[in-house]
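W.,

You were right to be curious about this one. When I first looked at the sequence I had no strong expectations either way, so I just let the prediction run and decided to look at it fresh. Below is the sequence, 208 residues in total, followed by the output.
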Amino acid sequence: MSDFILARVSQTLANEHSLELLVRQLLEMLELVTRMESTYLTRIDLSAQRQLVMYAHNSSEMTIPEGFSVPWNESLCKRAIDDNCLFSNDVASRWRSCIAARELGITTFFSIPVRLTDGSLYGTLCATSRQKQPYNLEGEQVMGLFANLISHYVEKETLVEQLRAANSALEMHSCTDELTGLPNRRALFKHLSTIFPRARANCSAIFC
């Protein structure tokens, strides 16, 4: 893996603070390494049996649209996972039954599953081209690295959201009277800074 890519990855990890910004930077780098026309991250909803393109980077005539959704069982990514095939530069012959690939004009396809630490399938990281491109070992290595980075970042964001939700629930509990379910004195004192100015403006009295 080139020092340039490693330096870009380090800089991106240091500067980007959301999943979207991180992924967009990684997709741009992935296009440079794989020399594909489109790179994109998908999200797979197994309960709904749908695959959605979350973020995409398109650098040529081929366009993979963000928000593009297909039934999971009909997707190119599921076929690749089922066949344990990360790369093909003859998609039309290998997966001739895939309507989405035919509609998008995909000839060369590179895909790596994005799995969370519990092994569950989050989505896929993909690179595609209308042209027939040769297999690229560095491309596979970089895709594997990026898939792991995305997985860790997704889990970090999920943990942060869970902590925020737990903190909000704890704060609400501490500010609510257990018997009446109404705001208690703690809640009142917490909002005094806004209550007093409002009371002065309305010429109202405050009873504690």
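Here's what jumped out at me. The chain has a mean pLDDT of 83. And, maybe more interesting for your project: Helices lie at 3-15, 19-34, 76-82, 91-94, 99-104, 137-174, 185-190, 192-202.

Coffee later to discuss?

I.
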